[in-house]
Amino acid sequence: MIDIEKIERDQAARISEILQGAVDPHVHSGPSIAPRGIDHLDLAKAYSKAGFRAVVTKDHDYSGVMCAKLIRDHNPDLKTTVYSGIVLNNVVGGLNAYAVEHTAAMDGRIVWLPTLAAENHLEWQKTSNWAHPAATQKMRPALPVQLFKNGKLRPELLDILDVIATTGLALASGHIHVSETKIVFNEAKKRGVERLIFTHPEDIVGASFEDVKEIAAMGAYVEHSLAFFAEGSKFRNRTNDELGAFIDCVGPERTILCSDLGQTGTITPLEGLRRGVATCLALGYSDAQTHSMVATNPALAIGLQNG
Fold first, then answer.
1. Does residue 160 surpass a pLDDT of 80?
2. Other C-beta atoms lying within 10 Å of the C-beta of residue 35
3. Claim: this prediction has a pTM higher than 0.90
4. In the sheet where 195-199 sits, what is the strand order?
């Protein structure tokens, strides 16, 4: 059995070096209507101290681009540049091209297709014993944001894909089903979208290894959430060997490792990434391969120059 904590202790300096220039493109810091263990500014300070290049904050209920700009403008000494994006859930109007244009105009980096309001997510939730913490406390339950009408992609979604292509944003699949992801990504490519991110195939979206290979062959990066793999995460439902199997499925060159952390009652995003790097080393990936998964690939995915 791999002792990840021992590797973290014994290889601490090596892990720190691998994480120099890292980019976390999917992290749930606050403020948020859901409980968060760290806010955007404190996260940026922690990542800056660790030598991270950038972070993309993600909230299921709002575009964080204004918060990100405020942090960038008032904290010029931070090494970590804070970006954000938008998730096409109910609170922003679902398939709202105006909101996507605004996100792009304010230097947003990622558009996520519906997550908590995806039809697939709402079906998955019925048997998952999980609910968005705000759904019954402060907000009405989510209604499905439908991507299709009469078997075809809705005109509103096509409009959004054109905006993404024009502005250079990255498109991430969110919590829609893998079968839907293939259709949307194929159309996105036809319309000139250059940056595609397949969100955590290991959970919620129903993906097989063959699905993962097919979507990577479209040119997408496959993003794995360390929240589902890292020891000590309250969301852990996958093993270290499964992480290796997912990476090997498409290779480190098409893989992104993100934290997907920031919630209360679990390890911090930085702890998650350090643990993820330790796991990769234990699985036999080289320092260069691991660095590409936590730094080079996510940088390219969000449009940062020089990877």
1. yes
2. 11
3. yes
4. 23-27, 54-57, 81-87, 110-112, 170-172, 195-199, 221-225, 255-258
